[in-house]
Amino acid sequence: MRILIIVLIAMAGTLPKCNKGKVSATSGLIEKVSLSIHQYPMKEVLIYDTDSSSLRVRLLNNSLGVDSLLAERQVDLKGFQIYESDISKFDQELYANQCIQDGQVITLAFMKNDSTLRKVRFSNYYHEGLEKVINFINSNVDSVYSISYNRDQLIGEMKKCK
């Protein structure tokens, strides 16, 4: 009986695929992606939450405990699918330029049912997959909320660090 249930679940396509702890872009597990920007030493965190239908921009002040919705926009499902397909490119938990102590720190959180499946942190580091996520966000927000991510500068700083 147990085998029959497993076969039926697999045929229905609801059995999640496992990839040694990595989130598979084809597994359908990701419901929401949250990108947080920490600009040290400021206490505020700018958060971009996106799912299959909308993109929300929030400002979180940890010291005051205030979470403010700054903007919300409906997004194109195709854009989110492209966004989701890049998850497998993040094969580390931390990408950091060890030569820079302060600056921009970006955290990506992949979620299902309001529970975080995986977090990836970028500290002054260029990553092609992150650039695609940022380009997706920037194409769906007003310019006042666009994310500055200077590819050439980050790569130049990373080369200097070696």
Could you please describe the fold and organization of this structure?
Helix content is 26%, strand content 33%. With 162 residues, it is of the alpha+beta class. A hairpin with a 4-residue loop joins strand 1 (32-39) and strand 2. The longest helix is centred in the N-terminal third of the chain and has 11 residues, at 2-12. Residues 1-27 have low confidence and may be disordered.
What does this entry show, briefly?
The protein has helices at 2-12, 77-85, 128-138, 151-161; strands at residues 32-39, 44-50, 54-61, 66-74, 94-96, 104-112, 115-123.
In whole angstroms, how far apart are the ends?
58 Å
Number of strands: 7
Helix content: 25-40%
Query: What is the residue-mean pLDDT, rounded to a whole number?
Result: 76
Sequence of strands across the biggest β-sheet: 4-3-2-1-6-7-5
Radius of gyration: 18 Å
Features:
single chain, Mago nashi protein, disordered N terminus, alpha+beta, seven-stranded mixed beta sheet
Topology:
Elements lengths: L1 H11 L19 E8 L4 E7 L3 E8 L4 E9 L2 H9 L8 E3 L7 E9 L2 E9 L4 H11 L12 H11 L1
Parallel strand pairs: 5-7
Antiparallel strand pairs: 1-2, 1-6, 2-3, 3-4, 6-7
